[in-house]
Batch of 4 targets.
Target 1
Amino acid sequence: MSPDAFDNRFYFVIPANSVKDVDFSEVLESELTLRYNSDSTKTFLCYESVSIPSSLTSIKSKEGPYTNEEVSNILNDSDWSIETENLASEEDILV
């Protein structure tokens, strides 16, 4: 059995106002790819390491670290769901 590609990935949920404190060279996201919860007060970050990136250690109100399975359960909660009826369809974007 091969190791899961996500075994070395860990996640923190952080307050949206803490994004400014993140060194994006330490995580797998960029400011443009962040996903926020439904009221835009939280986001999450992923990193690949056994040690917590230094910019994340300084964020006081973070939640985690979570495994891939744990963060998947969190993101499936209604607080993180995306209102698909308000999203533009691919056809609308291409027109």
Target 2
Amino acid sequence: MAGRPKFRKDMELLEELPSDMIVSMFEAGKSQTMICYELGIGRRALEQWIEDADPNIIARARAKAADKLAVETMTIADSMADTNPQRDVQRIRTRQWLAERWDQKTYGLQKAQQVNINIQDLRMAALRHVEVVDDLSTEKGQ
């Protein structure tokens, strides 16, 4: 890491800080950029810290943040102002979008298998099958 004194300094700072503090920042819904700014570190150092930490730690923190956003959407919806409802609707949509991204399993849209049935194709296949069976049965009878 020679030639990267800022990165080394940032990594030392991250190692000194309690990991719970950094994780709680993610749980609060803060972006990586905001966390870097508040801690005074570079983005690459934070990304390296995330890679070195438990791989599921950030996913769990984001899931908690998604839960918080879901609760916020209910609060916003319950207290919608009559003067500017579009603003509140946009705030709800933004939180829903983030919750879907941070916890796809819980808040994401479930994609089901799509099945297309063409009745005409089924009918034609059945008629062809009947013709083949008729041809086979007439050949055996001869």
Target 3
Amino acid sequence: MSTRSFIGMVNRDLTITSVYCHWDGYPEYNGKLLLEHYNNRAITRKLLHKGDFSSLQPQISDIQYYVDRGDEDTGAVKQTLDKFIEMCRESWCEYFYILKTDGTWTVATADSPDVFHDLEDNLNTVDIEESTSIIACEAIKNIEVEQFVESVRTSIVKVEFEKADGSLTERHVTLAPLLVPDDKKPKSDEPGLSLDEMTEKDFVRVYSITDNDWRTVKPSKIKSYSMPEVEFANNDSKFVMSLNME
């Protein structure tokens, strides 16, 4: 007998893209394969690209997608979280897997399709005391990252963040074009990352006034940031900045 499931991921606009999987939807099979072989957003996006399929496999090339056998209306579905949960309630599926934007797989069951648990904890522990709300976690993360990115695009930001070795450091950084020296400006043929790409890759390339050079900051490692007092003036058609970073 089949164990049906939905497999999906949270998009940057907080919608859910999902597909139907007919066989072996229980965590010990589908869940384990997702953790071991589909543990990043890029590969999961490829998994969902062709829509519904019969059985999850370690390699995408081995999956039998319904569209390949001529079935219609089997494409991936993109909808709000509420609509996704409503679809889960009305379906015959028993398990629902969602990949969050931080790369964490979560799972819910037919008994509680609106309560998602960490999938790895679900497989490794008997009793899960605490559940997480996908939409709450993702909304907070996206808002914080967006606010930081928009701040550095328009001003100088004093940011404290954790470096790779675990130590904390401070920098005054910006992405405002007028605040980047001409000799440090990126080449015109170097496209900048969009907000989605920045949060997807979890890094922002910013110009550090502290170092007079470009630096990489991971939004997930930011401890705090604030905008110092900045005054702008135009003197003989030249840009002049008076900056108090005390």
Target 4
Amino acid sequence: MTRVFRDGRVYRGDLGASARKAHRTRRQAELDAGKTLSKRTIGVEIEYHSEFPVTKLRVAEALDVALGEHVHVTGYHGDTCLRCGGRVDYKKWKIEHDGSLHPQGRGLDSTTGEVVSPVLVGQKGIDTLKLVMKTLREAGATIKPTCGLHVHVGVRDLDQHGLSRLVRTWWTREVEFYSLIPKGRRRNGFCKPWRRAYSVPTATADRIITGGAPSESWEKYTGLNLRPLARLGTVEFRLHGGTLNGTKAEAWIQFLLGFVDAMTDRPTEDTALDLPDGTTLWDYLVAEKYLPKKAGDKMSARALQYR
């Protein structure tokens, strides 16, 4: 017998009472410690600003030292490194040009950029992200209100029912997601709510999920972006404002991972996640062991702060 736990561990053989108890104890200890339990893949894009002499080259060199590897610098979605002239290795971190940040200077001398991660998994991936954010701060990078933090979450394991549940739950709980970001960010044109972008969002999304419409027909600049589904097997959450605070980013990513992991429950139902009246999404995820309580508490605090 093979059993796959929610956190990705695999157990082969008969699962006795002692093994079940040991797994629950270990998982609860990790939850209590606030660790990221999900083994789902993530990709992160960090938009930042700076002023001369903190150029893109200077930031890349600082990341080289912190990560112990060469960090590529490219144009927008470029595949050739401006530093070494070689092909971009997508298993490594890179810094891209982003015209929406209105940089001073060009190329390696630009003062703004978007730091793009390789595929990250688990607590190790989160810890690397926190190291990158710390290094950016120390190198002189800053955040302006126009910056964003974009998070891709892998969903290749979700079937049509699971994806439909994700879409429908987002639509019914979208206001709750936006309650976690400042009011000014909610008006940003690069992360519009579906309620501003679409008239019948779930019907269009269901057509994309079932292959009845190309994902390229979906609006890109929304809080939940479905365009990467076909090409990358991910969905992108764009609504969070820019940050170089690793602890804040970790809690947000844990929340997103818990949300997507919860879509594996009752996967034969094309319905939104049904929560008891008065229960927030983050409280539900904590109760169902998808989200560490520390992260859930941070979401509650943010909802109060930005109401």
